[in-house]
Amino acid sequence: MVLPIYNAFHPVLKQKTSDVENFDESIIQLVNDMYETMDFAEGIGLAANQVGRSISIVTVNDIYDEDDRLLHPKKAYINPVITSFSDEMDDFNEGCLSVPELRETVTRPKKIQVRYIDINGNERSESIDGLLARVLQHEIDHLNGILFFERISPIRRTLIQNKLKKIKKGLIVPNYPMVLPTGKLIGELTET
Ligand code: ZN
């Protein structure tokens, strides 16, 4: 089922999520719904609080290399924690399904070590770089109530104030369903 995406200014996105304690059927269902939602909204990653659930789950969509070979099939990271960051940094032009039509360059560490639980309930720790490291840092920020535009320079942030206000009010309508801070639903509501 495609779930509506919560607008960046909805309180659920400023709240730190809780860890998943019980691996039951509802978690599998939520992960599958998050996969469907990512595909529908054409997102590369999604945090559970972006679909209104304040729990620590991140999904990442299929990632391909330059030759269009599948590098990382879509995957769920449950209770993910970044345990180390590289000193080497990288710039990337990020976007976010909760912030329609805004793209900003964000500087982040190039490589990370991530500890998480996989969909089968196994605890894992992986060293990750490239686009996957970028996406995971953005999504794990969501679980901690941090939005990507909070990581840009104060000058850039001032320059985008008006656009952020429009997004908050729902004046920029995405082509997927979105819940505004008021609870109102906007956007494309039917699956194609
Ligand atoms: Zn995001």
Structural class: alpha+beta
Order of helices and strands: EHEEEEEEEEEHHHEE
Ligands in the model, by name, code or SMILES, are:
zinc ion
Q: Superfamily at the CATH H level? A: Peptide deformylase
Helix content: 10-25%
The share of residues in extended strands comes to 25-35%
Shape summary: globular
Contiguous uncertain segments of 5+ residues: none
Distance between the termini: 13 Å
The number of helical runs is 4
The strand order across the widest sheet is 2-3-6-9-10
CATH class: Alpha Beta
Give average pLDDT, whole number: 96
Number of E strands:
12
Question: SSE layout and pairings?
Answer:
Blueprint: E1 5-6, H1 25-41, E2 45-47, E3 57-60, E4 63-64, E5 70-72, E6 75-85, E7 89-94, E8 104-109, E9 112-117, E10 123-128, H2 130-143, H3 154-159, H4 161-169, E11 178-179, E12 185-186
This protein binds zinc ion (ZN).
Keywords:
globular, binds zinc ion, 12 strands, 28% strand, Peptide Deformylase, alpha+beta, three-stranded mixed sheet, five-stranded antiparallel sheet, 192 residues, 4 helices
Characterise the protein shown here.
This protein is an alpha+beta fold and 192 residues long. It has a single domain (5-186), classed as Peptide Deformylase, CATH 3.90.45.10. Helices cover 24% and strands 28% of the residues. It has four helices and twelve strands; from the N terminus they run E-H-E-E-E-E-E-E-E-E-E-H-H-H-E-E. It has helices at 25-41, 130-143, 154-159, 161-169; strands at 5-6, 45-47, 57-60, 63-64, 70-72, 75-85, 89-94, 104-109, 112-117, 123-128, 178-179, 185-186. The protein has a five-stranded antiparallel β-sheet with strand order 2-3-6-9-10. A hairpin with a 5-residue loop joins strand 11 (178-179) and strand 12. It is globular. It starts with a strand and ends in a 6-residue tail after the last strand. The model has no long low-confidence stretch (mean pLDDT 96).
